[in-house]
Amino acid sequence: MKFLLLLLSIFFYTCTQAQDSAKQKQLPAVRTVDIPKIDGVLDDGCWINVPIATDFFEIRPVPGRVEAKDRRTEMKVIYDDVAVYVCARMYDNKDSVSHELVSRDNIGNADFISIILDPFYDKMNGNGFFVTAAGVQFDAKYSQVGDEDPNWNAVWESAVKIDDLGWTCEMKIPYSALRFSGKDIQNWGLNFSRRIQRSNTQTFWNFVSPTVNGFINQEGLWTGIKDIKPPLRLSFSPYISAYANHYPANIPGVKNMTSRFNGGMDVKYGINNSFTLDMTLVPDFGQVQSDNRILNLTPFEVKFNENRQFFTEGTELFNKGDLFYSKRIGSIPAYSNYSEIKGDDKIIKDQTEAKVLNATKISGRTAKGLGIGIFNAITNSMQTEVEDANGNLREVETQPLTNYNILVFDQSLKNNSSATFINTNVLRQGSAYDANVSALLFNLNNKGNKYFVNGGGKMSYLRGEETSTGYSYTLRFGKQSGNFTWSYNQVYADDKFDPSDMGFFTNNNFLDQRIGFGYNIFKPSKWYNEWQNWFNTSYSRRATPGDYQSFGIEAGSYVRFKNLWSAELDVNYDAKANDFYEARNGQVYKAPENFTIGLYINPNRAKAYNFGGNIRYREQELFKGKSYNFYFFQNLRLNDKIAFGLDLNFNPNYNYVNWVTSQGSQAIFSKYDRRTVENSFDAKYTFTNLMGLTVVLRHYWSDRRNKDFYLLKPDGNLTDYQGPTLTGTDRNYNVFNIDFVYTWQFAPGSTLSLSYKDAAETYDTFYTQRYNKNLSGILASPQNNSLSVKVLYYVDYLDLKKKHKKI
């Protein structure tokens, strides 16, 4: 009965809030002649008699509640032929305003104010401009499904002031940072958002309901914008960089110390009102943060995060269908050929990454909602230097000159729906094979955006000495809005489908099905602010033949408490499975059932010192294998400029069983103990909102200590191994990295960066089971040290034109 009353109260509460907040707000556009000085002081005459956007609605902690009067927000927006101007007054106790200094495109422990614009008013795509109370800028692009792309960057102005009434902000957003039509009279989608960090309160001018799927589709309206014309959007960002690198190879003929000097340019050009060309010529990615490498004992590759800005900024169109893994371009190529390296050859220098010669993106969306994306990149060939038995040196081409291309057509439909065609194509010089993948995708929502159905079909085609054509499809439907949600998902791939040449790929030949349920409560109670619950079950079979693969159940609950701490409890059960990949030879392995339970605790991060972590336990049926994971983090903020973070992760495994090696066609498994320890330390000192330095230190150690060996039988079970003694199968892997970066934005869009990197890696070198000995060992091993400086200068063609006229 209590549960029924709770459901009824939630229902009536939701209905009441909808009546108060569901009406779309509108703000009339005001053209200005006088230009405000962007200094954060709201004393310019142009702000007088401008309509005020106020009475913001909370999205958290109480969705739909109107902001408190003593913390109210007042926004004004004006425009001219050049830009949109924003002024904001955030009422508050000035001593309570959070204003931590962090680097650009980060928020940190700070209050913020933002404006979100949808110039085409398609309720699918928008641009957000955020400013923290410390004056730090953050900008992002929003796609039709509500995803935030923080890698998108624009050049704009802002300033803030903290005063006795709270704090203020002014912005100037030039039209060169936006895409819009050339109509004489326009209406733009508009919303404002504010966060008060200490109470974790976030408000929107036009209410954004957490029970409704999507974000941009819940915007307000800026009406009556007259006689503005899209400017010529053309900018250049030339750069120069210099590197000094030292690695103690101590090999005759190979220098320990090397240096290089680079130069190149990024170009942005607005082809028309809707489309933009982004091009990078001879790019330099040497200063991006190092990958977090690990000891991988699975049959599949590890997926790393992309840190190169060109491949993360404005790529939402190219990411549709999960066919684009940008690390394939230069960093982690799918194809390499070492067949010309003979058994008695010694590798002197192996080029692990192909240099990106150039890359180009053209993307945009027409007034009728057709999004078009074209991506092209060329990587140089990779050469490996080897020495034969007679001491002769030669170079072997391990990867040819390669061209990567993506073409996307994405048509927006009613109700935040879309239909998409995407094609990826990889062309390699010479006899190496080429690859092509095409997909037709759809995403359909009903009028209230409550129910959905999406999916698509994909086809891969590999052409070389042998050709191969594979197929895959996805179908998903369910309820996506409201407190109660559900979905059904089915994914099929035949045994020839292979998108790995430009996408991330693990395996094919499967028919997976998944049913999920969720129940979320967004109305706060006496002890929580938000409560989310979910239950999912999955079932997988092979496509050909139709053998059973796996069955699993997962359930969880997440609660955000009144004190702003949060907790999550997850439970997972995996039944006995037929694993066709672990043996590495196509043979089935009868994988045992597993049970996992995990508890995650997150603190109130507004506190100067905060800590949290998780505990996870996993039990494997075979040999009573056990796995523990203890993760602990802590953050200390000494003041608004200095902060430290420490992450500790300890993951011991006992009596686990996996593949370890092969003897001819026979797969050998082992029972082993494994210990993984990962420690990461980060620190930052931010001088101003335009200058700061960060340092990240990471040590990762993981081993594998085999105890017993087993032979995999034809029926998929294990039997005691009786063959020759197996040596060299233990593992002891260490990685150590230091990334130190100093950045200074010395002019809008222009940066100077100084980077120091230290990297070391040891493999199959067994020091000891003690952590401190492994740390000492990796620090004593050969270190790769590099020091680099890079200067990038932003040049806007319109600014050059203005300066030329003055002369």
TrEMBL record:
Residues 230-803 form the DUF5916 domain. Transmembrane segments: none annotated. Pfam families: CBM9_1, DUF5916. Residues 1-18 form the signal peptide. Residues 38-192 form the Carbohydrate-binding domain. The keyword Signal applies. Keywords: Signal. CDD domains: CBM9_like_2. This is DUF5916 domain-containing protein.
